[in-house]
Amino acid sequence: MTNKNNDHLSKTDQELVALAIKRTDDFKYLIDRYEAKLLRYIRRLSNFSSEDSEDLLQEIFIKVYQNLNSFDDSLKFSSWIYRIAHNQIISQYRKTKSKCKDLEIKADETLVNNLASEFDLKEMIDQKLTSEKLFKLINNLDKKYKEVLILRFFEDKDYREISDILQKPAGTVAALINRAKKQLKHLLLKKRLIFNI
Amino acid sequence: MIEENFSKNILQKIKSTAITPKPKWQFRLKNYILWLSFTITILVGGISTSIIIYMARHNGWLLFGRFNGFFFIKTIPYFWLIILALFILLAYYNFRNLEGGYKYKFELVVLASIVLSIILGLVFYNFGLTERLERGFERKLPFYKEAVVDRLDRQHRQLWLSPDYGFLGGKVILIEGHESFTLEGFDRRLWSISQKKAEFSRPGMEEGVFLKIIGRRIGEDQFEAERINFFEGPWLEELRFPGGMMKENFYPRRINR
Question: Is pLDDT above 50 for B251?
Answer without folding.
Answer: no
